[in-house]
Design brief:
alpha+beta; Aminopeptidase; transferase; acyltransferase activity, transferring groups other than amino-acyl groups; acyltransferase; Acyl_CoA_acyltransferase; 7 strands; globular; single chain; GNAT_dom
Length: 145
């Protein structure tokens, strides 16, 4: 597995990975939420972040991570690749290469919360609403290791 910079030509694939991951971990989202987020991800979020991909040597993308300054804005791993170290590889790369030390994670995503805690992040705050103003509480985490 190697980490590469995402190109705009990767974005459609990244949206498919995002959807696979969200359907496996974000059970609180409705179909309408996913449908509303899909074009935002493709047209607004991905183009405005520093995005890296985890790609195998055959060229298949297994996950991606988006960073803005010191903050992880998104980390998604294809459902079929979860539990195989892809997220850990992406996160370690972002810490080492971009100096990230902050992330927000949906409180209703216990797998995501557990992953970040395992990787050395601790909760430093909480918001009742997500970034779109929806009632999906966010936990604000900071790297302490």
């Amino acid at each position: 597995m190697k980490i590469e910079t995402a190109l705009p030509t990767h974005f459609e694939c990244l949206v498919a990975i995002w959807e696979s991951s969200v359907r496996a971990t974000h059970h609180f989202l409705q179909e309408s939420d996913i449908a509303a987020l899909r074009p935002l991800l493709l047209n607004a979020y991905l183009p405005n972040l520093k995005v890296v991909i985890a790609e195998d040597y055959a060229g298949a993308i297994h996950g991606f991570l988006g960073v803005d300054e010191n903050r992880i804005e998104m980390l998604f791993v294809d459902d079929a690749s979860r539990g195989k170290g892809v997220g850990k590889l992406l996160l370690q790369h972002a810490i080492a290469e971009s100096g990230v030390n902050e992330v927000d994670v949906n409180e209703q995503n216990p797998q995501g919360v557990a992953f970040y805690r395992h990787m050395g992040f601790e909760q430093v705050g909480r918001s009742e609403l997500d970034g779109q103003g929806n009632p999906f509480p966010l936990l604000h985490l900071r790297l302490v290791k």
